[in-house]
Each structure stands twice: as structure tokens, then as C-alpha cells.
TrEMBL record:
It comes from Methanomethylovorans hollandica (strain DSM 15978 / NBRC 107637 / DMS1). Homodimer. Substrate binds at residues 275, 310, 314, 342. This is Diaminopimelate decarboxylase. GO terms for molecular function: diaminopimelate decarboxylase activity; pyridoxal phosphate binding. It catalyses: meso-2,6-diaminopimelate + H(+) = L-lysine + CO2. It is an enzyme of class 4 (lyase).
Amino acid sequence: MVSKALPFTKEKISEIIAQYPTPFHLYDENGIRENARRLKEAFSILEGFQEFFAVKALPNPYIIKILKEEGFGADCSSLPELLLAENTGIVGESIMFSSNDTPADEFRKAKELGAIINLDDVSHIKFLEDEAGLPELVCCRYNPGPLKEGNAIIGRPEEAKYGFTREQLFEGYRYMRDKGVKRFGLHTMVASNELNPRYFVETAKLLFELIADISGELGIKFEFVNLGGGIGIPYHPKQEPVPYDVIARGVREEYAKIIESNGLAPLKIYLECGRVITGPYGYLVTTVRHMKHIYKDYVGTDACMANLMRPGLYGAYHHITVLGKEDEQPCFKYDVTGSLCENNDKFAIDRMLPQVQRGDILVIHDTGAHGYAMGFNYNGKLRSAEILLRQDGSFAQIRRAETVDDYFVTLDMAGLNSFS
Ligand SMILES: *Cc1c(COP(=O)(O)O)cnc(C)c1O
């Protein structure tokens, strides 16, 4: 039987539910911290290694604060994300600002915070110069186009809206060099949820070679390379986690071959992962509200796409445990649904589970990244609470559930009465 272990008992969940009704996302602090340490340890063989947590994956300041304690910076792409980082005390070059189609006020805020600005387009150099002034340090995002095969979620690079072409990079760095920019970085992000470690080594090689070419032609020195995010997680119990040390050692080898041998060291190595940092340590806990038997058998939960979009959006697999029935045989086939008036509001289709009954508690795994964060209010559905399971076994609500008042807060209901 394929299964995934849980870092909590049914009793603990009952205790939490007594205080905070389902649905909620539950995050395992211990798992997050241990994983952060494993990642740092594996990548410590790389020059100046730094991880910038992609805030969009889990934009909760309590989580970001935990990650800050573990030595991570923040990768932000909007004004609210910059403010989240600032509020947790992450400022200066511990922020990577990797945005696209960027408004002027966000560039200004990023510059004010002293963040590393990662430009998405050659035209943004002049835009930044005019709107905020060029900072001393600038990074550019590379889109390798047909040079690099993409993967399922992010697509093929030549179809992707992100980044500079190779020619534009030469043009852009030359312009900035002539304008007095002194420090440079290079970035790319061409994968999402990629489980093959070689993919990241290949990406590093591509960037190292490009740095050698640009440095040679323009006589500029690169300070860092940002390999982006995109390290995948084993959503399915039959998949394996990505071995960090295989990526780190592979990158180290390419570094020796291309960077050190061309006299381009030291070059710091950065990552901006989100999913792999928190994804496996989040759980959507939901109660079975109704069982429905028509042409198929449906498990209707008290959660819906407002709480977790990935299955409906990408057909993504999320493992489901029926709490307390871990040892029962999965002999029943169900579609596990939410309550949206959208037929793709399903957490699982044709999933084999033990027999499910009303009132059962389902744990939907791997919701710690791109889970809560993607939620929306379609159909008047409200987003859930977020609970942190602390290392000492206690729990804390780190975001309350939305209420109907939150749903109406952007509307002037009083004005409606005088409106005709
Ligand atoms: C989404 C995103 C990330 C994080 O991606 P993960 O798949 O969560 O690791 C990092 N950088 C950029 C620019 C992104 O858009």
C-alpha cells in the first residue's frame, strides 16, 4: 500500500479542530527547519551559497521569520511581498526582487530596501534608471529560449514571457557598465517542480558559460549567479525527493571547470526555491461533509479550490490520508471534491481510499507551497486558517480564517442603499 507518513497523530488533530474548525492548513515547523538545515548543509560546498525563499509559495510572515532564523533571505515579486519581507526583518541584499511587468513604485520600494533587483527585460534597465535610478548592483534574468527544454508546469522557455534573450543580455550589461553599475548578477528560472537533479546542474553550466562569455566580452565581473527555484517535491508516494547533494556536487564540478579555470571565481551561488522549502511540510486538513453516490462516488469535503488550487488547475496529484484509517485497505474509488460550482473543484479523481464516511477527517498532503497562497474567493468561498505545529508539539494559529465580513470589506454596502 502506498502511503505517506504524517508528523502528527489523530489525537493532535482532534485537539486542534476543537479550537480551530476545519478546513485549515497545518504547517510542521520541525519539518521546515530540518529541511532548511539539510539544504544549507548540502549547498555549503558552494561559494557564498544563499537561498532566498520564494515568498509567493507561502506568504505568511511567521513562516518567513522561521526561515530567516535558518539563514534564508526572501525572493519577492510584488509590493506586498516586499512588505512581508520587510516586516519580518529581511531587508537589503537578503531580498531578491525577481518580478516581471514591474510597476515603477515596486522598483522604487525594492531600491529603497536595498534589495537585489533582478530585471526581467532589457527595456526595464532604462525604466529603472528613469523611475528609481540604477543601483550599484543589478541582476538580469536570462531566457535561454530553444537552448533549454522546459518542463510541464513552466513550459518551454521560448514560449515563456520571462527574461532577456542572449543578445539582450550583452546589450543590457554593456549599457549598465557604461552607466557606472559596478556589481552584477545573472539569473534564470526555467523549471518548476523538477525532480531531476541533473536539470539544475545543466542550468548552472549554461549560466556559467554565459558568464564566461559576457565577462570576456564586456570586461565586467559577476558577483553571483541565481539558479532560480523550481526544485520539485515527491507529491506522489512513489516519487523520490531530489537529492540536494547531487545538485550541489554537480554544480561544484561545473564551477571548477568553467568559473575557476577561467579566473572568474569567486562567484556566489544563489537559489530562490519555494516549493521544496515548505511544500512537503504543509497539510490541508478537511472534514467530510457529505457522501454522494450517483454515476460515481463522491466525497464532499468542507475545503474547496479556494484552499488548494493545484489539482483543479493542473490536475496535480496530492496524496490523501483518511485519518485513523491508515491501516485499512484502499478498496474504494472516489472523487474527492469541494463545494464550488465548478466541476474541476476536485482534490482527487478516481482515488483509491479506505471506505470514507461523513465526519471523517482527510489530510491532503504537500500543501505547504502554492497551496493557501493561490486561493481565491470565487463563489463566495472563504480562505482557511493557517496553523503552525510547533517543535514542542503545541500549535499556534498564524492566520485566522476569512469571515463573511472580509468578503464584503472592499464593498461600500452603505452606499448601496442610496444607489439607484
Ligand atoms: C515561482 C518562482 C520561484 C519559486 O518556484 P518554486 O517552484 O516554488 O521553487 C522562484 N523564482 C521565481 C522568479 C518564481 O517565479
